[in-house]
Amino acid sequence: MSDALRVAHYVSLSGFGGVEQHFAAFARRVAQRSDVIQTVVACSKTVHGHHADVRDICKEIAFEKKWRGIEIPRRPAMLRRLWAERTIARQAPDVALLWNRLDQQARAIDCLGAARSLYWEHGSAWLHGGDAEKQRALAAMPAVIANSLAAKRMLQLRWGYNRPIRVIPNGVRAPLAKRPRELTPGAPLRLGIAGRQIPIKGGLLAIHALAELREQGRDAVLTVAGDGPLRDSLEALANRLGIASHVRFAGVVKDMPGFFDEIDVFVHPALREPFGLVAAEAQSAGVPVVCTAVDGLPEVVASGQTGICVKPTADLERHAALGGQNIGLPPKVYIPDDDAITAPRVCEPADLAAAIDEVTADASAYTRTSANAIERVAGRFDFDDHVDRVLVAVREYAESATLRA
């Protein structure tokens, strides 16, 4: 164990969002290896109940803002700084992995030094606020990891980062389907969306697309997995469009493999998606995906092979006219076809409906698409391979304080 790699995770653990779940799964998988010692500096004040086992798999969990259960005051700032320096000195990591939260990582770098601080971008570069702190953190970072090419380009195009960026796509933990899916002749077409019901997920666009399909004579239904502040407005929209009886709001779904088993096409018309893990999980279940051609989604979904990526052509005025809320959207998104960043745009519901129709028009072609989806996840997004690639990067950084791009 004397030669073990010592990794300290700087991460918030109070929630159960995508980054927190990814951290927990990553830490569990790394804990199976004898050559890595993990510790945690929690940027949050609590640990979510679903992360309780992290205490068992990591050598230590310390809180950046608490000492022996007592919150350290914000002022004077030196108190928290001294505690953080003492904590990281005790943990003595070879490298600290800074999980997202770009605007809050400058203080970690101040305590650790840039040579031991490796930032891992999961979507923070898209968000509003903290611009000065983000710039300060990036100015100090010798290299970073990004979870998609889109994340890399966002760091470069929006923030002007010009040092090495290692792209390591997220891995999929969901089990792979054992066989491709088939459409059931004469049965309704079963669509599904999943995610927190907030504006960037584009749930209202999927409901409008369902209305388009039904107006064209397709017998289609939609299941909505997830909850959030827009649920009531989405239910009201389904009522106004006269399709409420064809939309099922399932709320928070714990059994996502079961959810994917019950749909034929996964629809993900997101306005922003740095990677798109839920689209990869759908494909692992053999479910073709119709999604927006924005940010990292075209890296996950091979348009024309595992589903269709629909170009977003409508502006935010159109989004509002459809009933969408534009408050809180990111100022910029990445458009892979143009290799450029721009204000968020949305897919026209008619274009989404046409893509769904295309994916399901021929039963044999649909089954080939399903097979391609399973093969793509197996070949590109294996979780163990993902963990291996991250640890290779961490070891490289520990040895050289940089990464090859």
Descriptive notes:
- It is a single chain.
- The protein is built from 15 helices and 17 strands.
- It is globular and about 65 Å long.
- With 405 residues, the protein is α/β, with parallel strands linked by helices.
- It starts with a strand and ends in a 5-residue tail after the last helix.
- Helix 3 (77-91) crosses helix 4, helix 7 (203-215) packs across helix 13 and helix 10 (277-284) crosses helix 14 (363-380).
- It has helices at residues 18-30, 54-57, 77-91, 106-112, 131-140, 149-157, 203-215, 231-240, 256-261, 277-284, 297-300, 316-321, 349-360, 363-380, 383-400, and strands at 5-11, 36-42, 60-63, 66-67, 70-71, 95-99, 117-121, 144-146, 165-167, 189-194, 220-225, 247-251, 265-268, 289-292, 307-310, 333-335, 340-342.
- The strands form four sheets. Strands 3-2-1-6-7-8-9 form a seven-stranded parallel sheet, sandwiched between helices.
- It has two domains: 5-171 and 383-400, Glycogen Phosphorylase B (Rossmann fold, 3-Layer(aba) Sandwich); 189-380, Rossmann fold (3-Layer(aba) Sandwich).
